[in-house]
Amino acid sequence: MPEQEKLIFHSISLDDRDWINDKLKEDNLNVCEYTFANNFVWSKVYHVEVGSAYGCGVIRYRGQESYQYSFPFGNGDKKAVIEHLRKICAVHGHKLDFYPLTETCRRELMNWFPGMFEIYTNRDNFDYVYTVEKLSTLRGKKLHGKRNHIARFMDKGDWHYEPLTEKNMDECRRMAREWTSLRTEKWNEKMALEIEVLEVACSNFNALGLCGGVLYKENNIVAFTIGEQLNADTFVVHFEKAFPDLQGAYPMINQQFILHEAQKYQYVNREEDTGDLGLRKAKLSYYPDLLMKKYTAVESQVVFADERHKEYLIELWNQCFGDDRQYIEFYLEHRFNTENMFVIYEENRPVSMASLLPIQVTMHGNKENARYVYAVGTLPAYRNRGYASKIIKHAAKRIKEPLILQPADRDLQEYYEKLGFVDAFGESPCWIYAGRCTEAASIPSIQEKSLHVAEIVSEQSELDALGSWSVSDASEKDYKMVRDTVLEREGYVEWDEQAIAYAIKENQFCGGRTLLLTSTVRDAETRRAVLMYRIEKDSLHIIETTLNDEELYEILPELFLHTKTTWAFERNMGGMILLPEHFSDWEHKEGYLGLTLG
Length: 598
Known about the structure:
By secondary structure, the protein is an alpha+beta fold. It contains 19 helices and 30 strands. α19 (549-563) links the parallel β28 and β29. α12 crosses α13 and α13 (325-335) packs antiparallel against α18 (497-509).
């Protein structure tokens, strides 16, 4: 790192416009934050500062406790800038925090600093991107409603569109104040900030290189909008205001602005929805061609797994759990994503891991988001360093959702108790043999999952009925519907269709089947149930069923014949839960975990 290079930040001003725009053009970035004008108009809200070094520009935002930085932009040495920023943050005892990163930035950061940054997304911050052609023409059945609203707006022909200029700027300001007065019931701090920022944009309109459009009805302004060029092929819309009770005003200003000001571009970025459900609905109603992910990256020992380190993950999994390569690859293909497996790196490779799969659990009568903790393990050479504990504690702090797991044995249960987990969901292990259920001290488990056991399925005869039940293979949609209907209660752990689909595939992979059973015998009323089982040597393992004991025992003899097994067992080990503070009063002893997907 050259000694003469210094990265000194100063408050953003109009004097910075040209050099920042030049540097941004070198990268041609496609997320809404990367324009000079956007940073300038929000500068008082976020205390925006800028600096340059190593041929790159950097934007800095002041948070409550520390700074957040843009990713370095321009054709210079970005890695050197990041190393410089890491040293600055270390001096002040802070972790380096970047936002926003594009997908390209994410990959560059992981290449340069493997295992050193936790990189994640927030759906509230995704940019909505549309083609100019779509917003100009509103073609297609899906946008028929938009065209109807515009037609109603145009019915009397008493409208016209003008570019936003100094001539009509004050009228737009007055319209914004009137718009504000109509939003009293929904008024919030975000709206107040946006009005302040809008005034900055209006006051510096020409200096910032902004452009705008104004919509008139009966010679009165009813809508206006402001935007600018984002990059070589994308236009970005920063502000849009229309009277909400005037039918067609919003879609009309949206279309007219793009028709008049954005025809030389291919795409329109209409920014994020910030988690506002009304705004999300409105933006989705135009069917975006792309939801542009934007990432946050924070220095951390615990990070998300890099999808490019698949071989390391396979080796780590195999050494921890003994599963063969086929099974591990099967899991990674169907359940792994870049934000559900936490790892710790040593020597540029992951050495400890834990997956946190999204679920929902019914708490106080409401479906709450939670995570199922799965496949927690550390390479033998790196054990006794507290890595697994660090991952669990980090996940609990970061996610702030209940964490649920099912420990494989008593030693692990004691380990998780030390981390704050408590018993939950009830436990009812049992043997099932020849139609009878008796308590058992232990139940054998399969230590190695292999594709080869799936060959057992091909040896089974056709199965279209069990007793009075007609039988077919269950789809994930049917399985979820029946499961949720029958098992829903306080403490019920619910999986989404994607997870159920994996459970069915994983069960088949391991030599099992998942059945949908239908009966119309009782009171001529159709009843449906599900049964997931697999064959383990000469036994039948009932993974999960919504059949009651009597119904299950009734069909077991036939199922034994069909599967060529001699005895069966069902096991419900219950589970454990780590509750965040805001759920600390929840009664966790009852409920249902059942399906654990692996």
